[in-house]
Amino acid sequence: MARPSLLLAASTAEPSPPTKISAQGISAWYGPIRALENVCLEIPSNRVTALIGPSGCGKTTFLRCLNRLNDTIPGARVTGTIRLDGVDIMGQYIDVAELRTRVGMVFQKPNPFPKSVFENVAYGPRIHGLAHSRAELSVIVESALRHAGLWDEVKDRLASPGTALSGGQQQRLCIARAIATQPEVLLMDEPAAALDPIATSLIEALIDDLRESYTIVVVTHSMQQAARISQHTAFLDHGRLVEVGETTEIFSTPREKQTEDYITGKIG
Amino acid sequence: MPGSLILSTLLFAAAAFFLGRAAARPFGTGARSRPVYHGALLALWVALPGLAVTVAWALAQPALLDRLLLAGLPAGSVDAIGTGGRALVLAQIHALAEGRALPHLDAVIVEAGARLSRWREIGRLALFATVAATLLVSFLVARTRITPRLHARAAVERALTVGLVVCASVALLTTVALLVALLRETVEFFRLVPPAEFLFGTNWDPQVAFRSDQIAGTGAFGAASVFAGTLLVAAIAMAVAVPLGLLIAIHLVEYARPGTRAWAKPALEILAGVPTVAYFFAALLAVAPAIQHAGRALGLVVSPNSALAVGLVTGIMILPLVSSLADDALRAVPQDLRQASLAVGATRAETVLHVLLPAAMPGILGGVLLALSRAVGETMIVLMAAGLVATISLDPLGTTTTVTVQIATLLAVDAPFDDPRTLAAYALGLTLFVVTFGLNLLALRLVRRASRTDAS
């Protein structure tokens, strides 16, 4: 009798969210080297999914499959099916640029353009013609910077170069740039790896806020970070998906021995 | 003889190296430097005095002997003819000493010739003895200083540093000397022709000044038209090289497959190695007639040596400079920025236009300016394929002339050295030097700034 009641309790606590991205049988190669092997993963809508695993396990490769950024690497090859809202995005005739406006990305190392703070954020909206006047563009830029929690720090120096900001500010600027085109999904490749603890906690709080509006996939090295910010966790090792589930379950009662070893620090 | 002397000095130094190294070996770990540095230092201490003596001797002996010879001649026999006569007498004596038979010479001079040849033989032996003594003494002195406490490595490093500075200053001194030489002649020229007239006058006809019944150079050295021709040719060349070079670079960096780039870039750089004479043939025999025919078909009158043909070929010549440096600049843009732009949904073309080109702009501009100074300074193509008539005209189909052509033409005339035409060539040269030097300076500054932003 205990089982059904538990299930009931879980479903009332948080109704199972719809799937935003569904990856089926993803394999990836860089030249002759196999980086991913038959990975199947469902990414739920409006939640934070963390990808964890030791270095070189294929976390970043998988992340870059989701916005087809691996296309830009010579010799990279990806097979399998990835559906975004049920539509296959792996097809040859998919407009990759359009896909990337729906699936934004933040990189490990802050990479603002050598342009002003304003121009960094305005870059995407400009390219996609989202604003019809300077005033509209300013509204978009301000809103993106506010969402990224950077507005109060930079509102007086929008014209100064983005590269002159501190590392943590640069990373939030990159987040603002990524959300300025109003994507549905936000991919983050170890967004706090290059930052100090204070900047890291700012970014983590921000990720938690952004979950309301975006589906977020975060690659992280830090297990604590995954536990703090994510609702879903997938553990990869040697290009294979070992285990996926609710973050609380993965960290408290992992099903696989391999996952347990990694989480408790025996490997990795 | 001096060659074999230098060679034996070096051989001796080599021997000193091995001796010094062998002497330092037993020091073991107690020594401050490794044995190889003791050897190198000993070799330097031996070779440098030896070479210095040889060089100093070679520089001093001829002047010394000449003075002795003149002193030995009977008083009045040379001074009557003046300085030119002295040089002539010395030349005769030297010819005799080298074994050439000259007819109709004074007995005094024949005797002096024999004396010179004897002195030279003595000098040769004395030099040999001096060098041998120097080598031996410096070896013996230096050998006593090879001790474990010797900072041999530091000393060798210092010697190398000094050597490098000397090499570097050769290039620098050449530039300075060149500038001084140009300046001296230009000042001379500006005494004959006012600078304002040279720079802004439009009447360029250096032939007029040659006639002795005219006042030298008046009204004939207005170089503005020559500058205008240079600008026209350079502008056409840049109009060809900049867009083409940029597009080539963009293609190679962003669109070409790595395999294509591997052969395409070197192939393009071969263009930079083609002798300019080959370009001149292309301009004269292929491009200019082709433009003339095309112009005729369109009902245009095209001069056989049109500025357009010259400019086009010059443009092709400087194309690799632009494309190669733009390629480097684009390649140096961090991969991060490319990915950032692609990740917000920009296409590759948008990425190139809005991110890569602005980021690479200083480097690209540097390349463009270097190419421009090359185009302005180019002689061979324009010399043969361009005309000689200086007119202020921006008609690319007409004939034109450039600064470099005029310099070559002016110097080719067999005029005395203080003739305004010869001096005008120097003035033109100085102008060219100042312009290309300025362009290069600007280019270097931009390239440097580009590399600074890459690092950040």
Keywords:
heterodimer, A: 268 residues, alpha/beta, Rossmann fold, six-stranded mixed sheet, four-stranded antiparallel sheet, 11 helices, disordered N terminus, B: 456 residues, mainly alpha, MetI-like fold, 2 domains, 0% strand, flat
Q: Could you please describe the fold and organization of this structure?
A:
The complex is a heterodimer of chains A (268) and B (456). Chain A has helices at 2-13, 59-66, 96-102, 117-127, 134-147, 151-154, 167-179, 197-210, 223-229, 247-252, 257-263; strands at residues 19-30, 33-44, 48-52, 76-84, 87-88, 103-106, 185-189, 215-219, 232-237, 240-246. Chain A has 268 residues and is an alpha/beta fold. Chain A has one domain (19-263): P-loop containing nucleotide triphosphate hydrolases (Rossmann fold), CATH 3.40.50.300. In chain A, α7 (167-179) runs parallel beside α8. Chain B has helices at 2-24, 35-72, 83-97, 107-144, 152-192, 195-200, 224-255, 258-273, 276-297, 307-332, 335-343, 348-377, 380-385, 403-412, 420-455. The longest helix of chain B is centred in the middle third of the chain and has 41 residues, at 152-192. The model of chain B has no long low-confidence stretch (mean pLDDT 82). The chains are: A alpha/beta (268), B mainly alpha (456). The interface between A and B is medium-sized, with 28 and 22 residues.
Task: Tell me about the largest β-sheet of chain A.
Answer: 6 strands, mixed
**Tally of DSSP helical segments of chain A:** 11
Strand content of chain A is 25-35%
Strand order across the largest sheet of chain A: 6-7-8-3-9-10
Low-confidence stretches of chain B are none
Show unreliable segments of chain A. Answer: 1-13
Kindly provide the radius of gyration of chain A, computed on alpha-carbon positions and rounded to a whole number of angstroms: 19 Å
Main structural class of chain A: alpha/beta
CATH topology of the largest domain in chain B: MetI-like fold
Distance between the termini of chain B: 58 Å
Overall number of strands of chain B: 0
Task: Please give the CATH class of the largest domain in chain B.
Answer: Mainly Alpha
Mind telling me the CATH superfamily name of chain A? P-loop containing nucleotide triphosphate hydrolases
Main beta-sheet annotation of chain B = none
What is the overall shape of chain B? flat
Counting structural domains of chain A, the number is 1
Residue share in helix of chain A:
25-40%
